[in-house]
Amino acid sequence: MRRLSILLLCAASWLAVMPAQAQQRLKELASIQGVRTNQLVGYGVVVGLDGSGDSSPLTSQSLTAMLTQLGVQIPPGTTLSAKNTSPVSVTATLPAFARPGQPIDVTVSSIGSSKSLRGGTLLMTPLRGADGQIYAIAQGNILLGGAGASAAGSSAQVNQLNAGRIPAGATVERAVPTNLGQGDFVNVELQQSDFTTANRVVNEINRRFGLDTARAIDGRQIQVRAPVDSNERVQFLAQLENLAVDPAENAARVVINARTGSVVMNQAVTIEPCAVSHGNLSVSIGARNDVSQPGALSGGQTTPVQNADIAIKSDQGRVMQLAKSAKLSDVVKALNSIGATPQDLLSILQAMKAAGALKADLEII
Question: Where does the signal peptide begin and end (predicted)?
Fold first, then answer.
């Protein structure tokens, strides 16, 4: 008994210091205004291909323009053989606070009819931002994955070979100015607009750093008073982004993939009594009043309980009766068991939503 008491005491102490699973760090719920990435894009030429290039006029024009810039004069009317060359698009993401000289990864994708970029080398390609300015220069050997063969050559695996990556293949040439707040304040922006979460974030910041440190502008933006000195501001933001906050529960949502029939629910979604007829399928959900009988000598009282009847029938005469709470998961499971197609499922759930029986946001992807 003494050992058991010690174990229970240790377990209680461990549970007391264990953080709630529902809590999330602020960095997982929000971002700092102004701290963002920027997309870069460029047009380049890949050379060194093993006969898998693009022989379209676009490739020939690109080679001619490139050689002209390098001082090589091409006689008029000359057609260049481009079976080892391919025009490509080059994309990259410029991270926040990137400085000149910093390497970044790039993705190279074929534009024309090239069959493969394996073994190719991207020539110097300027990468431009949305404003047309050059922010990075890319060049290097293309790395492709997913292509291989067995030692005996009896089996092979070939994936998409018209796109690849160049790790650290671009060098930043221009920095994007980033304003880490304005004056005495920085703005924290929630990833999803929610008044409850915004209020909880403000309360947690004020509890940790003092009253009047933060105030909510709306359901997404929170204004936070921060030190003016850059070093102190970074230290403050490091503490701020690691605050544990209890986010508000998300609204009930049902996501349906119309192509695959996948149904995803973020919580237990209930359905009110309704009846739906769709082709050879009929779905009926009704309420049933039952009685909860207490055990013998328990001293309890008999109480009325309202359960749900779910009946799904097809023209084949198959009927499934479910005596459970009217949860959407039960309905979807029953529909799948009788062979309902994704389109049937989509139509039935849309009808339930239109009738007001489905208490959730319905999103179709």
Answer: 1-22
